[in-house]
Amino acid sequence: MKIGIIGSGSIGSTIGKLWSDAGHEVLFSSRNPEKLSGLIERVGGTVKSGTVEEAVAFADVLFLAINYWTLDDALANMGDVSRKVILDATNPYEYNSAGKVVRSIPTDISGGELLQQKLPHSKVIKVFSSMMATVMNERHHRKPLLVMPYTTNFTDEKQRVESLVSDAGFLPMYYGDLTKSKPIELFGKYSDKILNEQEAVESFKIDFEGK
């Protein structure tokens, strides 16, 4: 599968390398792709670098892994992403003038829902937003596999996202539609929570009992 990485920081580079190692074609993007030469050398294999626009044209799937305060600029650079599948690893937080982490959007909506509103003709899947890159780098492919919850409104894309999560070395688990995204975003119930399959099944069951 051809995957365009929008945001080549710790999350993007970690997951992008895992996908490349699994045999996917990966293009890391930046507004200044020449600055990605070190990353491309470290990842090795067949990975490429390019602009954000080139990543969009290249990819079957886009992986959005940017700082939230750059979201609108990134979407503008991406251009028309109608009908594109977008894996969203962003978290709706930023630093205020005092250096404190604060929420960027209202509390009654998740980042996944808001991105889908911004991109009504794309297929948004919230995933890889609940774990730090260091944890994923340490835990991928280790048994028992670390559960990676995801949400989406597009159940027809479950097979695709679950294949990509599995290829990265994690156990995918559907948590619901995008209205259920807050628990799998930063500071949510499952933020940096290490669960195996049985633990996740039991916890998810409790979350949705009576609903």
Q: How would you describe this protein?
A:
This protein has 8 helices and 10 strands. The strands form 2 sheets. The protein has an 8-stranded mixed β-sheet with strand order 3-2-1-4-5-8-9-10, sandwiched between helices. It has a two-stranded antiparallel sheet with strand order 6-7. The termini are far apart. It has a single domain, classed as 3-Layer(aba) Sandwich (Rossmann fold). It is an alpha/beta fold and 211 residues long. 34% of the residues lie in helices and 21% in strands. Strand 4 (61-64), helix 4 (71-78) and strand 5 (85-88) form a beta-alpha-beta unit. The longest helix is centred in the first third of the chain and has 12 residues, at 10-21. Helix 1 (10-21) packs parallel to helix 6 (133-139).
Terminal-residue CA separation:
37 Å
By CATH reckoning, the class would read Alpha Beta
The strands making up the biggest β-sheet line up spatially as 3-2-1-4-5-8-9-10
- CATH topology category name: Rossmann fold
CATH-assigned homologous superfamily = NAD(P)-binding Rossmann-like Domain
Assign a percent range to the helix content.
25-40%
Q: Which runs of at least 5 residues are low in confidence (pLDDT < 50)? A: none
CATH architecture: 3-Layer(aba) Sandwich
Q: Please outline the major beta sheet.
A: 8 strands, mixed
The 3D shape can be described as globular
Write the element-wise H/E pattern from the N-terminal end onward.
EHEHEHEHEEEHEHEHEH
In total, the number of domains comes to: 1
Tally of helical segments: 8
Give the averaged pLDDT, no decimals: 96
What is the structural class?
Answer: alpha/beta
User: What is the count of β-strands?
Assistant: 10
Gyration radius over CA: 16 Å
Strand content: 15-25%
